[in-house]
Structure to design on (225 residues):
């Protein structure tokens, strides 16, 4: 099993040809589904219909990122639609522990997302319960943004916190990821790399996935070296 996983974001896919685009990235480890409500973030993307469409089209696990206010109100919709892993924002969750426990009780993996300005220290009392931590390396809401370099130090702090707790959640990074920076992002501690435009904007999306994966593996090999 590879240490580094790639989760292409369908936010950058061609929605009119979604099945085709999913087939083109059959080598990916996850499908990243960005759900935006136009309230928590200043953009509106899609909802359960797209999750269901992905589930009926591919066997690749669905990594559903809820960029929404009040996730408790709708999280069951996405579990029922076929999500395999759901991440909710720390900034949007009033009762985070309850939400995480509910997702896991429903048989779905659960994680927490942190915006760029939110410190990893807020996870101190929930980290042991998480299957994934997603660090946003751009401000959420739009694809195609540039990677925020400070995310690398944040990754290192999160990795150290995981070691202190004796836990090993997936550490995902979303925003501005491509083959050019995947190595340093993985070397800082990321194990799941989300890439949208770098994959679906390429002439050969499968080759783009493989290139990002290869760069990430090179970075992972540097940990502890």
């Amino acid at each position: 099993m590879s240490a580094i996983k790639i989760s292409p974001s369908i936010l950058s896919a061609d929605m009119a040809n979604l099945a085709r685009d999913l087939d083109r990235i059959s080598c990916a480890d996850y499908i990243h589904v960005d759900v935006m409500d136009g309230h928590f973030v200043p953009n509106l993307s899609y909802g359960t219909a797209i999750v269901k469409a992905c589930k009926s089209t591919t066997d690749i696990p669905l990594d559903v990122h809820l960029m929404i206010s009040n996730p408790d109100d709708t999280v069951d919709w996405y579990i029922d639609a076929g999500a395999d892993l759901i991440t909710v924002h720390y900034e949007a969750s009033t009762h985070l522990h309850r939400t995480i426990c509910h997702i896991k009780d429903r048989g779905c993996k659960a994680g927490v997302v942190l915006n760029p300005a939110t410190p990893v220290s807020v996870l101190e009392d929930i980290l042991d319960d998480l299957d994934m931590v997603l660090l946003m390396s751009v401000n959420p809401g739009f694809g195609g943004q540039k990677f925020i370099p400070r995310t690398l130090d944040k990754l290192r702090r999160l990795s150290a916190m995981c070691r202190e707790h004796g836990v090993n959640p997936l550490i995902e990074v979303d925003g501005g990821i491509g083959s050019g920076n995947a190595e340093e992002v993985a070397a800082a501690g990321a194990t799941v790399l989300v890439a949208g435009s770098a994959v679906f904007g390429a002439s050969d999306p499968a080759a783009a996935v493989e290139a990002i994966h290869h760069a990430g593996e090179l970075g992972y090999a540097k940990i502890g070296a």
Remarks:
- The chain is about 35% helix and 20% strand.
- The beta strands are 5-8, 31-36, 62-67, 85-89, 109-114, 132-136, 170-174, 192-195.
- The chain has one domain: 5-220.
- The chain has a mean pLDDT of 96.
